[in-house]
Amino acid sequence: MHQTSVIGLQMCGYSHMGVDILAEKKGAPGICPQQTGYSQGVVGETVREKCIWGLTTGLCRTVDVHGVWRTNCQHFSLTSVVLVARWLVQVQAMFSKTKIHTLSNFHTRSISSLKVVWRKDPTLDRAIEFDKRYKQCARVIKEVLNEPGQVIPLRYLKKRRERMRLKVKAETFLNQNPGLFDVYYDRIKPKTEPVRFLRASDRLRQFLEEEQQIFRDNEPLIVSKLCKLLMMSKNKVVSADKLLHVKREFGFPNDFLVDLVPKYPQYFRLTGFPGEGKSFLELVDWNPEFAKSVVERRAEEESERLGIRVRPSFNVQLPRGFVLKKEMREWVRDWMELDYVSPYEDVSHLDQASREMEKRSVGVFHELLSLSLHKRIPVPILGKFCDEYRFSNAFSSTFTRHSGIFYLSLKGGIETAVLREAYRGEELIDRDPLLRIKDKFVDLLKEGWRQRAEQLRLKQEKIREDMELMATKVGG
């Protein structure tokens, strides 16, 4: 009589690795280790469970990494259990050799020497490309609004074309984006000829008022983001000029150091004068509610939903067809088994080249990208905070080394770190409330583009009518 017993074996690695052990009793019993995939070195996403087998009782139990037991009883014949036990001894020997080899590599090779081939992700690249036109318009608007009286001679704007990274002539830009500015004539100096000036249109000014209202509505969110940036830093202090440089990445208002920071003396202390290079924003009080990362909050939510303790861990989403070399798979597998290091913990005792410090750095990058508006930040901007957040000089290799967590885009000739889990295709899954500002700005631009398209349509119709009329006269 044919009798088959199957045990599901889960190995801890870079993915859930389903391992089926087949114990077959039919005349001469046989076990097929090839079905496990272990001999082939199959490794995939993170698992949170290890399996413990009560072989003598035929009981299969699972226990999570925090010691929370869950039991799944499956009874087997004594012959099947003995066969499985023999094969497990072989697997254990193979696994021990692999672990010894891997651990020896940890001591002989540095983290930075582990290389992963960069692979393009067209979907995430499109998400970046989609925003280029809007950012171009925002740079031109910023240039005008920063001028005294928020007006600028058109010829001055032409001279700043390179600084604004404007790929077309200033006149062409104005024609392509009607509704942003009003063009009028005025004198630069008394007794000079009038020249063309630009000023914000009524529609643009209405948008700017709506933008300020959105900032006011989301002030608690902005305060929490600012506190988190300080709490993750080495000495709980960050250069004010650096924060001004990244205000657009995190959705801070233009004048947040002047208008917002003084309103919260319980959290912030500003020293020096912003813009002079010697101004710093210090954290005054530590708020425990702000000291929870996105990863930790997600683990808490999963624990409440499942009723078991879930440890914080990163979501890993390797792109389709992406393959890691065996050495890198082993390194990442064991690295993922390390305890999560919160970006808000004090890590002054950790060695900069240790795996634990790598874990912490990945946690900081994950948290920074999660706090950003678009869940992505250009690498040069992150590089400005190497000292504050203890990043190594070669920190950008972290994004390729952990390709299942991050994507390093090269779109536009600028390296941009992208958080994979934040996107479904090219769309953000959870949108930051401050992105309402971008939505309204896009609506403003699209209204102007529709206006231009209608003007071009009417112009083409007029040309066609004129040509038809001319053809009629010639034929007559």
UniProtKB/TrEMBL annotation:
Residues 120-449 form the PORR domain. This is PORR domain-containing protein. One of its GO terms (molecular function) is RNA binding. It comes from Psophocarpus tetragonolobus.
